[in-house]
Amino acid sequence: MISDDRYRGALFIVEGIDGSGKSTQISLLHKWLLSQRYSVFFSEWNSSDLVKRTTSRGKKKHLLTPLTFSLIHATDFADRTERNIVPPLKAGAAVLADRYVCTAFARDVSRGVDPAWVRAMYDFAVQPTVGFYFRVPLDVALGRILAGRPELKWYEAGMDLGLSEDPYESFKLFQARILEQYEKLVEEYGLHVIDGTLPISQQQEQVREIVRPYLDRVIRRPEDNWME
Amino acid sequence: MKVEPYWLRLPELTEEYFPGKLIVLEGTDGVGRSTQTRLLKNWLESSGLAVFDTGLTRSQLAGRDLNEAKQGHTMGPRTALLYYGTDFADRLENEMIPALKAGYIVLTDRYIFSLIARALVRGADREWIEKLYGFALKPDLTLYLKASLDELLSRCLASGGFDYWESGMDYLHAETMYDAFVKHQTALLQEFDHMSDEYGFVVVDANRGIRDVFNSLRNEIATVVADMLPGEQQFTDFVGQFRPVEDQPPTHKTELTEMLRGLLSALEEE
Asked: Nearest-CA distance from A52 to chain B in Å?
């Protein structure tokens, strides 16, 4: 990975399985940084406009194999890196990413993609200043996601792997595989583990504490006089 | 063909051999690959051999979007490379491999080599790109249509002038598209020369007329596919029209069909 020392800003990312509470935490961090007048840039997984139509066609028509699923997400990630991650970092902003390379590693390897190949592909990613991993037991995460009996999408449920005919059963088995992969990645990528079963505010307190020492690198907007 | 990837064997590839053969036509822009592909396909099919032809940006998954993304001129070099990789992987897994399994001759207008060359001239790391395309299968034959810069220039002018990407305008700072084209194509030719040894290209002089180039290609291909000929069958001489593809008048019917197809699938996606 490309070292973040090359850039003025700071890159904070969150990882974890669906239902781990990571998106809640990063959006709270986002609000807090804005309230402190830091320049913040937010980049979400799988959000590049350039490749959106391909991804949605592939998902809707079930055209994706593990290999093309992996490649199209890497394309999306490359576009966001070239557009939304590196330029703001160079400018000195705090860049927040909801999911980062470990999401690809965990999902793609769970689908049977070669771990060395997918890591080599993402070699161009900027090393996060801080990476968080929200750890929750599988049944807690499943409970949060499945409580409302949501309609699970084909790839989200891992239906392409043929683990089960039932989308809910398939989702559970797939999430278990992903969780197993994540646990291996925590050490490999030096992720800060946050206990995702703690109260939300307590988790946020820990997140802020870990992020704080890196904030002197981040540029701040001038005081808005009218707010005084 | 022997099923041999460059680096990474896809899990679905359990076979050691496929009955089909993979033949690649490579070369820089405007060197006459599509014309030759058409002639070769006619010739092989009339000799009783089934041919599946493919080429860049023709995948069901990403082909059209990739062409549209190119129109926008806002795609970064690494993004473009991965997008082309997606297109290539989709065609490899869903078209080329099934065709090879079924005993077809897969004739592909460009393979990974053009993609590698394009990435390298834009400063990509050689090891990264070779690993990325490490799942590609080694072809039975890679024919490199090599033309001089002067020849490429005259063909480029004859077929409507300079193209943004073919001139490397996305990464070069040049006074005019002509200057960019010269720089870009010179760099590409150098990369092709490097790859020629590494990947064992058969170099075919493409500075000649269509018929001469075709004869050279045919001789090379004949040796590779001779064992596939049915029974006592010999190769025919049939090639169809010699007129280059780009000189043919556009058929409005195809254009209309393409347009409607595009419209329909756009509507469907909305």
From this structure: 9
Cα–Cα distance for residue pair B104/B207, rounded to 1 Å: 30
From A73's Cα to the closest Cα of chain B, the distance in A is: 9
A136 touches chain B (CB under 8 A): no
Query: pLDDT value at position B130?
Result: 93
Name the residue type at position B232.
E
Distances from the Cα of A18 to the Cα of A57, A95, A174, B210, angstroms: 23, 22, 11, 58
Q: What is the pTM of this model?
A: 0.87
Per-residue pLDDT, B242:
67
In chain B, domain spans:
21-269
B82 touches chain A (CB under 8 A): yes
Superfamily the domain B21-269 falls into: P-loop containing nucleotide triphosphate hydrolases (3.40.50.300)
Per-residue DSSP letters for A58-121?
HHHTT---HHHHHHHHHHHHHHHIIIIIHHHHHHTPEEEEES-HHHHHHHHHHTT--HHHHHHH
Query: Could you report the per-residue pLDDT of B1-58, keeping only the tens digit for each?
Result: 999 999 999 999 999 999 999 999 999 888 889 889 999 999 999 999 999 999 888 8
